[in-house]
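ok posting inputs for the nicotinamide-adenine-dinucleotide job
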Amino acid sequence: MGEKLLVLPGDGIGPEVVDVALKVIQKVANTRGVEIETDEALIGGIAIDETGDPLPPETLEKARNSDAILLGAVGGPKWDTTDPGARRPEEGLLGIRKGLGLFANLRPVTSYESLIKASPLRADIAQGIDLVVVRELTGGIYFGERGRRNGGNEAFDTCAYSKEEVERVVRAAFDMAQGRRKKLHSIDKANVLETSRLWREVVLEVAPDYPDVTLEHQLVDNAAMQLIRYPSQYDVLVTENLFGDILSDEAAMLTGSIGMLPSASLAESANPGRRLGLYEPVHGSAPDIAGTGKANPLATVLSCAMMFRYSFAMEDAAAQIDAAVDAVLDMGLRTPDIAPGADSGQQYTPAGTAEMGEALLKALS
Ligand code: NAD
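and the output
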């Protein structure tokens, strides 16, 4: 039986980068004799235009019946409004994450030798970065009780976690570390916060199930510094929702190329290689370059590698896609977002979305 993939192209450059990614997926599947059955649905601004709803019920239903979901991006100036009653494209994203119970958000950050100059860090620090931030996505302060009191002059937000919520994301992170360099940093603020003390307790309870993984606890303020000071020390980092939101954006900037960053959001599963997951580039719909054929498709393509790894249990296919991305970069192909500056003196071959796609297909042959 084949895999069922739901494709949500969305808005702006979403359909352009998804188009390349789909060709890559089919190529990798065909060479292995694997069948991937694709279906398409609406999300975001285009869904508002066509149905009035950023996440039509049919989209969520199709997503629930899929093995994986590939999303381009949502949003754009057309739907930016200050009208509090208007529907917004981002509601589609939040709705699908919640509706599918996608509790673990993964953002890998890898430094490519050929793009090292794009990093805001010194080359000797930016070299050798190969880490994944695992962020808890459906609990914590973003979902706790909140409000105003004292006539509106005082506000509060509540952070709460249950043991179960912590355990499932911590196990997902340990599973991931086991398949990588076997190092896990658990990030918390256990010197101050009670939720962090519970977090640490659970991590310590789970750790004996993964004796081959080296575990280190780090306080979040220290982690924020260490990510800049010595990022190559990390393999997998796991943390709660708020800390993860901030640290994953910080980590995203280590390499300096937004068009290169993939992500996955995963649901619960007894089999770590076969989780229902939503795969999408970290970047948005880039309305400034939509329709120009300049969008970098590599973040979306790298998200597909994650799909093969975490939803289809096909590590060899994932590694093949990762290697194809390395190959096109080593060939010197560059979309404008990753092109070296005019004063760098570096040689490269300018490419658009389509040329990058063709080169990837060749590299996969
Ligand atoms: P953005 O990521 O869309 O763009 C930021 C800058 O990076 C732009 O200059 C853009 O041209 C460039 N860029 C982004 N992706 C690129 C790619 N693949 N190749 C080349 N250049 C690329 O962020 P923004 O401009 O803040 O937001 C634009 C819209 O996207 C907004 O409506 C925002 O709400 C939405 N958004 C959606 C998501 C998502 O769907 N997950 C994430 C972030 C922003």
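notes: The mean pLDDT is 95. The longest helix spans residues 14-32.
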